[in-house]
Design a protein that fits this description.
single chain, alpha+beta, Jelly Rolls, Arc Repressor Mutant, subunit A, seven-stranded antiparallel sheet, 7 strands, 21% strand, globular, disordered C terminus, sequence-specific DNA binding, Homeodomain-like_sf
């Protein structure tokens, strides 16, 4: 079976909440294992039947549909046979609005949709599988996400947390916690508490993940040396870069490039989702 990967663009109304869609269908006759390293997004995986195994810091889960919280460690996914479904990459702020609960409760976890006690999310696999094509599935998912995320009764993140997350994202993690606190007008302690509750990681850890995400993209592209990647991304030196790869991905940059070279970190199935662990 030839793999099928169909990208979709969320509507503008979901900007800042949903980054992209990916429809996928692939097959492996033997168990296929992938290393998913942390990134600054949360993968909503809506499989249409077959399951996969996920081994991560939160334990082992076997499911075909789940929403990954923010991670600061790698997840290994394994499947054999067919995988068919849809992935939506949510920002942590989008996931917070969707779930209407603290994101700190999902840190390093990948709960199955049917474990979230949410009938709307639990019904998505069957509803999407029944539709005839990817455009129809993307449209339905957009309607469901918009209804939940933009509803007047939805728990909205603090403006200060939105500002801090956007600042970290724009600088690829290069903004310090003291600077974020000063810019928001909050104490460092208050910022840490509110940010972790609504993003899923403390600001310093989130910045670390975002810096790693930038570095891993450069490493997999393979067009520059590791020393240059380290300098570009603000690591003290190449050994510092190597230590971060071992800590966050579980392998060296060279091994990571061998696994993911030619792909773009941040997407399941066709590439590496990190903290958004798909198949």
């Amino acid at each position: 079976m030839k793999p099928e990967f169909v990208p979709g663009r969320p509507p503008a109304v979901l900007s800042g909440l949903v980054r992209r869609y990916l429809g996928y269908r692939e097959y492996s006759a033997t168990p296929l294992r992938r290393r998913q390293a942390p990134v600054g997004s949360c993968a909503l995986i809506i499989g249409f039947g077959p399951t996969m195994r996920l081994d991560g810091p939160g334990g082992t889960v076997t499911t075909g549909a789940f929403l990954a919280g923010m991670h600061d460690a790698a997840v290994l996914t394994t499947f054999a046979g067919e995988q068919h479904g849809l992935q939506a990459d949510l920002t942590p702020l989008g996931a917070y609005r969707l779930l209407r609960r603290p994101m700190s409760g999902l840190t390093n976890l990948v709960p199955a949709l049917d474990e979230l006690d949410d009938p709307v999310l639990g019904a998505l696999p069957a509803r999407l599988a029944d539709l005839p094509d990817w455009p129809a599935r993307f449209a339905l998912l957009s309607d469901v996400l918009a209804a939940r995320m933009l509803d007047d009764g939805t728990r909205a993140p603090d403006p200060e947390v939105v500002f801090a997350w956007d600042r970290l994202s724009r600088t690829a993690g290069a903004t310090g916690v003291a600077e974020l606190a000063a810019e928001t007008g909050w104490s460092r302690r208050h910022l840490l508490t509110r940010f972790r509750g609504q993003i899923g990681l403390p600001p310093k850890t989130a910045g670390r993940v975002l810096r790693f995400q930038r570095a891993s993209g450069l490493v997999t592209a393979g067009v520059t040396s590791l020393a240059d990647v380290a300098a570009t991304c603000g690591y003290a030196d190449q050994p510092h870069l190597v230590r971060e790869f071992r800590a966050l991905a579980g392998v060296t940059p060279t091994a990571f490039r061998a696994e993911w070279g030619g792909t773009t970190p941040g997407s399941s199935h066709s590439s590496n989702p990190g903290a958004s662990p798909g198949s």
